[in-house]
Amino acid sequence: MKNIICFFLFFVISFSYSQPNEGEIVRFEFVKVEKGDIEEFEIFMTDFVGKVASKAVENGKLENWILRRVNQSSQYNSQFSHMIIWVVPKNTPTWAETWDATYPGLSADSRSWAWSKGQELYETVYNARCTYITGFNHTGDKVNNIATFNLIKANNINAYSEFEKNMKKTLEKHAPSLKGWHVLSRNGSVTRSENAWNFLTIDTFESMADANKVWWSEIPQKINESNIKKYGSASDLRVIQHRVVTRLLFDAKNGKFEN
Fold this sequence. Notes:
Oligomer: single chain
Helix content: 25-40%
Radius of gyration: 19 Å
Largest sheet: 8 strands, antiparallel, barrel
Low-confidence stretches: 2-17
CATH class: Alpha Beta
CATH architecture: 2-Layer Sandwich
Order of helices and strands: HEHEEHHEEHEEHHHEE
């Protein structure tokens, strides 16, 4: 199987998470790859699918497409090994046009064959469509290497959304280890389930050393006390169901990341 994919990639080559806006839809695909297939899966995604995603960004079909590997030492990983993040604008060209532009020397049947072989390497555990609420990125269009995803169950959706909006200024100014921070709400009726998460926050860092810091302790105590008095305590508004640390493998704006 590995030789088939590698041969196909050689054949193809021979022929041939920046920050979203408020209200933009972001799709998170949580996938499971068996340990013995991880290397081949990552080659398939970065060297084959990644080229199509980069073309889609160039043509305005995607804002970005990001592939991340879950750090297996994370406390929780919910049975998935990788995350694929799709930042999609409202009006897009067709995917057929994007595939044709990326691999003009290949027939639709050849592309379909390669895609089917790649799909054998992983299982999609579930998808989650989310709406971007607020956030910041100190590194511009750069997608940071390390990202911690907090899958959250909020008791009161409106109250928690307002709490996070109000916290943005504090985190942006007073948490220097954070290179980026983002909040999204999950869409769909699944969020009504008692055990389903309904919010997602993302903390991004340049290095694992920064991610391992107790970064929230960087915020001055007086500011923390003032925020609690004004907006309440986060622990009273939500429960973090899963916390997953990831490393960047690929983003369609900047290409492959050696990690």
